[in-house]
């Protein structure tokens, strides 16, 4: 549990209420530690978002269901979803977006939680981070934000599809629409960026530039399909100019997977004029970004991507199947495995760039 920004997480016994109408109580088995957890902890700093239980990249087993739940039963393997899909709102009915009007982010994106919660600690309400809170042995979630997955799926791996891998992979194949033979650049080689590299590769890109100031990540990027590797600190000119020189004017597609507004601009400027597409993937809401209008007037497109453009309940079960048939990788993202009691160590590993994904074993 987390009481305030920048503080260490504390182990506390919390009460998890039974599921109410349309809700599911899940026994969480495993969860990844995602940079968005760190964002809320160290960057967002909105005190209204505390106390909270972090975690949003998990997988588990249905423990019980509330009244009105017909699509889930105890024992089902599931992945909680920070992005819901009610199937009824104007966004869910529109094929152009994966947003949902009933998602917590529609009203409470600044505190990254809905004030409604099933968690209490010593009679004090505890917020459920991003509507999920997977750093808990049990969590209660509305059925519109839960995906039922294959009974044979390994939960300690497919949990990664609850956020980071789906986000980066989908940003390439869905939002950017990477085309066969194209040239791409991915900025930031965390799990999201590496998944974007994998998406570019699977979409048929002929050349994929992996851009990061940590050169230790280049070997891992090669595993996912990167062909060229650039450290911006190794050049005495903007990396967008370097890319333009190496690609005869710029790349066809660029993906910013850091959550840094300066890198977002650099990624746009790295695209070729006329048709270049740049996608904002990294999560941030604390700074403004800017660009010269001529970048867009000249024919470039600047887009944003949430959860890779995937409609969550429909797509996550398919992504699980894609992993189980070898179409996408998951195992290669996992660099550390720890217990829930080691959560602060896991956070420090990610904060210092020493891991790609750490999996926390929540329930034995």
From TrEMBL:
Transmembrane segments: none annotated. Its cofactor is Zn(2+). Keywords: Metal-binding, NAD, Oxidoreductase, Zinc. The keyword Metal-binding applies. One of its GO terms (biological process) is formaldehyde catabolic process. SUPFAM superfamilies: GroES-like (SSF50129), NAD(P)-binding Rossmann-fold domains (SSF51735). Pfam families: ADH_N, ADH_zinc_N. GO terms for cellular component: cytosol. InterPro entries: ADH-like_C, ADH-like_N, ADH_Zn_CS, ER, GroES-like_sf, NAD(P)-bd_dom_sf. Gene3D superfamilies: Medium-chain alcohol dehydrogenases, catalytic domain, NAD(P)-binding Rossmann-like Domain. GO terms for molecular function: alcohol dehydrogenase (NAD+) activity; S-(hydroxymethyl)glutathione dehydrogenase [NAD(P)+] activity; zinc ion binding. Residues 4-360 form the Enoyl reductase (ER) domain. Belongs to the zinc-containing alcohol dehydrogenase family. This is Alcohol dehydrogenase 1-like. It comes from Sinocyclocheilus anshuiensis. The gene is LOC107695031.
């Amino acid at each position: 549990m987390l009481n305030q920004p920048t503080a260490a997480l504390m182990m506390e016994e919390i009460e998890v209420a039974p599921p109410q109408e349309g809700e599911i109580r899940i026994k969480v088995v495993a969860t990844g530690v995602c940079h968005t957890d760190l964002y809320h902890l160290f960057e967002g700093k909105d005190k209204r978002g505390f106390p909270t239980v972090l975690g949003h990249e998990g997988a588990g087993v249905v423990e019980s269901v509330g009244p009105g739940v017909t699509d889930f039963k105890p024992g089902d393997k599931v992945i909680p979803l920070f992005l819901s899909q009610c199937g009824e709102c104007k966004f869910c009915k529109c094929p152009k977006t994966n947003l949902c009007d009933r998602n917590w982010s529609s009203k409470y994106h600044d505190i990254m939680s809905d004030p409604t919660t099933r968690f209490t600690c010593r009679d004090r309400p505890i917020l459920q981070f991003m509507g999920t809170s997977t750093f808990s042995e049990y969590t209660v979630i509305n059925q519109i934000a839960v995906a039922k997955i294959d009974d044979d799926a390994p939960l300690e791996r497919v949990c990664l599809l609850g956020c980071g891998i789906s986000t980066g992979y989908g940003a390439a194949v869905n939002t950017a629409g990477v085309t066969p033979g194209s040239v791409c650049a991915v900025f930031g080689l965390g799990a999201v960026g590496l998944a974007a590299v994998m998406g570019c590769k699977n979409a048929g890109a002929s050349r994929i530039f992996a851009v990061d100031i940590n050169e230790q990540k280049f070997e891992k990027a090669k595993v996912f399909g990167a062909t060229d590797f650039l450290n911006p600190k190794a050049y005495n000119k903007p990396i967008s100019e370097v890319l333009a020189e190496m690609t005869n004017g710029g790349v066809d597609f660029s993906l910013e997977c850091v959550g840094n507004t300066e890198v977002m601009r650099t990624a746009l400027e790295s695209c070729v004029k006329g048709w270049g597409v740049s996608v904002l993937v990294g999560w941030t809401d604390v700074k403004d970004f800017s660009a010269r209008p001529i970048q867009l007037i000249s024919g470039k497109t600047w887009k944003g991507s949430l959860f890779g453009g995937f409609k969550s309940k429909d797509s996550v079960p398919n992504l699980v199947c894609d992993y189980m048939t070898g179409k996408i990788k998951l195992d290669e993202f996992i660099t550390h495995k720890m217990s829930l009691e080691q959560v602060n160590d896991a956070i420090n590993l990610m904060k210092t760039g020493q891991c790609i994904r750490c999996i926390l074993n929540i329930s034995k």
